Every structure is written in C-alpha cells, then in structure tokens.
Amino acid sequence: MAAFEDYLYARISEDELGLEKGVTRQLRECREYSEKTGGRAVAEFSDNDISALKAAPRPDFDRLMAALAAPNPTGIQRRIVAVHTSRVWRNRVERAHGIELGGRLGIIVKPVNGVELDLRTAQGRMLAEMLGAQDTGESETKAERIQSAARERAEEGRANAYALYGWQRVYEYDSRGKVTGFRDEEHPEHASIVREIVDRLLSGDTLKGITADLNARGVPAPRAGDRRKHRAKGQTEDGSLWGKTSVRKLADRPANIGLRIYHRGRPDEQWMPAAWPKIVDPDKHDLVAALLADPARGRRKPSARTHLLSWGVGESPCGSHLRVAPRGSSKWGTKQPTYVCDKDGCVGRNKEAVDRRVNAVMEALLRRPDVLALLEGSTHKQAEALKRVEALKARMMAAAAQYADEVITDGQLRVITGRLKPQLQAAEAEAASYRPSPHVSLVLDTVAEPSRWQGYSINQKRAIMEAFGVRVIIDKTRRGPGFDPTSVRIIPRPSGDG
Question: Is the pTM of the predicted complex or chain greater than 0.90?
C-alpha cells in the first residue's frame, strides 16, 4: 500500500501562447517525485497563465482544495506535491486560508525542491507561513523592479515591449555586435495605413466601411501572425483580420502625435513626450478624436446609416427621425423606397425624389458666396447658448440648495427640475450645433469644387450636411401621385451673427 495519496499541483504565471509546456514539465517532476517517495498520484491539477500574486481566480486550485476537503475513506495520508511552495501560495490571503484549512484536514505540503510542510503541526504551519512570506516578498520585489523599469521607459518615451503599429524597431550595436539600445522609426506601410484611416474618417467614411475595405484589400491587421492563446470570435488563426475596435483605437491613440501615456486610466495617469516620431498631423488628430468621442455616433442605428436622411439631418414635422420603408399601393404602382416618420409614420415621401431635391439644394448651397459663414456658424449665438446653459445650471443648483435648507419641499424641487431640465437640454444642444465640424477638410475641398458633391458617398454627404447644420424636414401633404418639392424644407444654419 502507498504511504501517501498525492495530489499534484502545477502553476505557471505567464504563458501568452497557451502552450502549457511549463505546467506539463512541473507535473512530470511531481509525478516522478511521488513514485520515488512511495506516494500514489490520485489526481493532477494545473492553472496555466495565471498569476497567484494578484489573486486572480485559479479554477484548478479551487478543485484541488475541494478534493482535499472530501472524506478520506482509506485513511491514507494526503499530500500536496508541487515543484515549489511558490506554485501553491504567493498571495497572503490565500496562503492564510490554505494553511488553516490544511491544518484542520491534516494535509502535508511537499515541494519537490524544498522542505516538507506538515500542516498537522504548529511547527509545520509556522514554517509554511515563513516560506510563503519569503515567496511573496520576492514576488513583490520583482514587481517593484518591473514597475520602476516601466516608469523609466515612460519617462524616456519608449514603448513598453514591441514597436507600436506604425513604427518599426531599429536596434543599435557596439563594435562587438552587442545590442546597446534601440529606437522606433516610422514604418512606411503601416504609418500610411494609420494616416489613411484618419483621413477617411475625416472624409465621412465609417469605421465599418474602412474595416471592410482593409479586409477586402488583404491588409494584415496589427500584430498579424503573432501566436496567441485566444482569438476573437470570427478572427482567423493568424489574426490577420481587422475589426472596428482596432481601427478606432489606431485612429484615436495619442501615440500617433508623439505622446506616451503612463498608467492609463489610473489616478496617477501621465502623458509624456514619446521618443518615436509623429505619424499623424496634430490638427487632424484633434478632429478625429472629437469625431469618435461624439456621443451622437452611438445613438445612430447602423442599419439606418445607408440612408441619406435617416438618424442624422432628416426629420418629420413632429421632430422624429426618418427611416426608409417600402410604401405605395396597387392604385399608384408598385411599392417604392420611402422616407417615413420613425415614430408613427405621420409622413412619407418618395426617397428618390427627396434625394434629388436634397442634392440640388446642397449643390446650390455650396456655391453660395456666404457658404463659409454657414460653416463657421455664429460664435455670438454659441456664446448666448452657453450663457443660458450656465444660468439654467445655476438655477437648478440654487433649487437643490433651497431643498437642502428646507426652504422648498421635495415636490417643489421636482416641479422646478422638471421645468428647467428640458430648457437646459435644448440650450446644450444649441451650443453644440455651433461646434466646428471634424470633417472641415472634406467640407473645404467641396466648397472649392462643388461638383464633387455628386461623387460622394452617402456618409460623406451627410457629414457635409451636418457641418452646415442642415435640417431636412418633410412636411405633411396631400395623398396621391406626384412629388411636391415645397413639402421638403431644407434649412441650413443661419450665417453670421444675425
């Protein structure tokens, strides 16, 4: 009969490729040790690519502890066998819990490379705590060194590991061929892709359209070919496909204009000059960052973005968005694509006829001598709107203070807030309508050559219309055949400060 029932445990902190070579090797060593010392391996457990120091969940470790807590009908001494105590415990909380549980269950922890820890005895538990504290201290010291090196890299403006997409790493050598340093230089092909993405977004193209085009052209995605343990759903094995998220991140990252972020998203976040060269014009970067941060982008239905007026500049008399739906009857012919009110269908107008009128009006608008004044909007009106915003916020704060001082009741506060909130939202929307368009380059190119309008995509046309603050309102009219142009009002933002 075996002297011990051995429960083998292995853990590797980092295994980005998921090859599991480390845990396989550890389990083999544990197996050999169990046989050599008269044990019988009854179960094997392993957690791969999981750091114990950060208290990350360890599924197999939990199963190990559950197995040890189960009844022991044979009465044979149970052992945990691992290559080192650091594989079992490095986190203080887990170690304290494990030692306490092991003491109650009468477990022995036996490292292949280390002294036996008999948790049945006070001496064994004390030794387990001491060795565990040493393991934790070594790990935390290593973590401090890593953090210090990361801080130094950030201050020097260097990337953390590999060169970012858009740059290539060039190593420097001494006379003996030894690497003495490196620098990141612009990668001609990758940097041009980044600039293309930025320019296309500023020209009214969509993330979805750009992503589809890059994949259709067979342009490899960033870090394509790298071996990974996990891939996103739908991604190829070599990771060559682009996704909308990766396209957006490339366009929006501060690295494009030579900025390095240290501790992104943390309270001590810092932006530092990068050692690599800029690959995007800073003005374009500011515009594309504003474009991608616009909350209105998330409120538009993707399925409706193929229509010129839907979920953007078109609206019905009741203020609702427009959508496209087939409408018509056998009396007037087959059903045709029609702009209809998205709320209750209060209006409907032939899509092709409306688009012809919009195109004609927009080309005429682009040729107006005061067209740039329409683009710039009114700084005076924007200032007035912002003043109203601040005044309404102040009134709401004053009402809240009066409620806190018991000058007004809860019901009175709700009435005041209910009346002021819609006014505040309207003032904020008006102020926002005068902000500069992120598509200013596209608009200026079109003003210089209005004939370009007809060759633009739907998204580009909508971007230009939004830049001029154009609203397209489809009014109610009589039923029947024919199209009444006067029932479609196309209203640009007023020019000047008047």
Answer: no
